[in-house]
TrEMBL record:
Any GO molecular function: structural constituent of ribosome
Record-given protein name: 30S ribosomal protein S9
Recorded family membership: Belongs to the universal ribosomal protein uS9 family.
Keywords: Ribonucleoprotein, Ribosomal protein
CC annotations in GO: cytoplasm; small ribosomal subunit
NCBIfam families, per the entry: PRK00132.1 (NF001099)
Coiled coil: none
Entry-linked Pfam families: Ribosomal_S9
Domain of life where this protein originates: Eukaryota
Amino acid sequence: MSGTLRIAGAVRGPSPSERPAGDTSRKYVSVDHLGRAHAVGRRKRAVARVWVWESEDPDAPQVTVNGQSVSQFFGGHWDLRYAALSPFFKTQTAGLYSVMSTVRGGGRSGQAEALRLGIATALQGLNFDLRPTLKSAGFLTRDRRQRERKKPGQAGARKKFAWVKR
């Protein structure tokens, strides 16, 4: 055995059995004094910062992305709109929550999926009972695939220049 002394919870924090009863701390989610859950979602090069709170008016919940409505931000791409708001549809909470978000980097598809991860994580922070539904749908899992870099001496990441015999 090495000469190092291991201290329980020194690196990772307390284990679930060491947490006090009733501790509802959630990873990656913070709820401010106004009741807004804040989370960050990432996909490819896109980063979405999301704030979700219970809507005062269930008939007209607001979902804004960079100061625009979702339909304005994603334009005619209904599939991207649906992808971004799918956590609400899957958990049947559409209209119950309002969302304000800022999205930077990446393309529209990456931004929509980053927004989806951020909304799902924030929803989980507000209502932990939604976690099994969100988890089974795969909305809480970060897709870590990134663009592969271009290699020197090649046309692209995988594509080669045409081989010339002479």
